[in-house]
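Incident review: delayed structure delivery

Summary: a single-chain prediction request sat in the queue longer than the usual turnaround. Root cause was a stuck worker, restarted by the on-call engineer. No data loss occurred. The affected request and its eventual output are reproduced below so the record is complete for anyone auditing the incident later.

Affected input:
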Amino acid sequence: MNVKETAFLKVIADLSFPEKKVVINPNDGFDLGLMMTDATVLFYYGHSPATVGSEDAKPIYGNIYQANECKLGTVELSAKAVEKMGSPKNVRLHLVPQDTYPQVLIETQ
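Output delivered after worker restart:
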């Protein structure tokens, strides 16, 4: 499996974000191989490449945005998504390329 990943990123929970929106710095997006300002992906909250095939893995279609306003080494997520994952302080993003929409696995530390 050709998986690209970021380092662990500091989580910023945003009450105004829908669950299907994630914002990262373009330098962190480069680590994932993302070259455009936004991409439609399948999010798996709380999963790593080792657990993505489990029965409780429920994907959510959404968009990952790259914005210079997002500080390097941070990720902005919806407060609801952060709560679902157990309110982690840091997460790592893994991108698994697919033919249709790439999978972005959001692993807690």
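Verification: The chain has a mean pLDDT of 93.
Action items: add queue-age alerting; document worker restart procedure.
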